[in-house]
Amino acid sequence: MSRRPVDTGDPDRLYTITGGRSEAPDDLDLVSLIVSECEPARGMQSEHVRILELCRRPAAVVEIAAELKLPVTVVRILVGDLLAMAKVTARHPRPASAAAALPESALLLEVLDGLRKL
Amino acid sequence: MDSVSFEPSTSSEPPARTPLSATAETGLKIVVVGGFGVGKTTLVRSVSEIRPLNTEEVMTEAGVGIDRTAGLADKSTTTVAFDFGRISLSERTVLYLFGAPGQERFWFLWDRLFVGTLGAVVLVDTRRMSDCWYAIDRLEHHRTPFVVAVNRFEHDSNAFSLSEIRQALALPEHVPLIDCDARVRSSGKNVLITLVDHLYELAMAREMTP
């Protein structure tokens, strides 16, 4: 059983990690795929180092959150920092234009195809 | 900051992380909703290529129904944990499957985390069918397409038929309703295919309409 509650410690710690910020970039989705564009450098915040290490291959925001054992919003803020410094790039999911908009049939056929091959 | 350092994994466990293909570029979402203990994580695990991971979201929200002029004092923090798994569909496309509780507080997160989801699976335990009423209501409200899968537990002594269940859930005819065994990979896969088939039909109908 892999399920284990995520221990985020006390809120003060999260506040420290994000430098007191609570607003994450809007365009960072749970499944935006993050890719490192450089190696960690000396003096970087430890969470930034971990993200750069994890994202040598693409990793979704939610995967980073699970690996770092941090809430999703905190990770979005941290990834946002790295994006602003051009140390990572993000491959965004198809724009969620309207919540009610259905994805086009071509994409769904691709998904069906992939599922049938499982 | 030692609190953020990785916990050493126990040696008997497989490597926690299986990296994605370097060419992965599109992440997709499907959400599995259902009551406590209905088998959401089991379903995610049966089809996922990684051991399901657990994470959470913390949000501060103004107290509902409380006088907002009272200021910061009425803010409360809500924490919602959820599991997820992953299926690489192709070199480019990767599907993330989220298992999420159906309780009321979870729906605060729907707009924020699960926006843009392809669709949802409502997982039902016939011993506690009322657990999913709220989820079905919210999905209809959000206009998120969904299918309903009945997780047939071994000791399903009631053994309601699908038509009885459809009636009990007041489920419209156009919503697919199927049996499954969340523990079995082929069955979990069939649930996902049923959902995406349904989504495809909806998309086709939409594209045919000028």
From TrEMBL, chain A:
<protein>
    <submittedName>
        <fullName>DUF742 domain-containing protein</fullName>
    </submittedName>
</protein>
<feature type="compositionally biased region" description="Basic and acidic residues">
    <location>
        <begin position="1"/>
        <end position="13"/>
    </location>
</feature>
<dbReference type="InterPro" id="IPR007995">
    <property type="entry name" value="DUF742"/>
</dbReference>
<feature type="region of interest" description="Disordered">
    <location>
        <begin position="1"/>
        <end position="21"/>
    </location>
</feature>
<dbReference type="Pfam" id="PF05331">
    <property type="entry name" value="DUF742"/>
</dbReference>
From TrEMBL, chain B:
<dbReference type="InterPro" id="IPR027417">
    <property type="entry name" value="P-loop_NTPase"/>
</dbReference>
<comment type="similarity">
    <text>Belongs to the GPN-loop GTPase family.</text>
</comment>
<dbReference type="InterPro" id="IPR004130">
    <property type="entry name" value="Gpn"/>
</dbReference>
<protein>
    <submittedName>
        <fullName>ATP/GTP-binding protein</fullName>
    </submittedName>
</protein>
<keyword id="KW-0547">Nucleotide-binding</keyword>
<keyword id="KW-0378">Hydrolase</keyword>
<dbReference type="Pfam" id="PF03029">
    <property type="entry name" value="ATP_bind_1"/>
</dbReference>
<dbReference type="InterPro" id="IPR052705">
    <property type="entry name" value="Gliding_Motility_GTPase"/>
</dbReference>
<keyword id="KW-0342">GTP-binding</keyword>
<feature type="compositionally biased region" description="Polar residues">
    <location>
        <begin position="1"/>
        <end position="13"/>
    </location>
</feature>
<feature type="region of interest" description="Disordered">
    <location>
        <begin position="1"/>
        <end position="20"/>
    </location>
</feature>
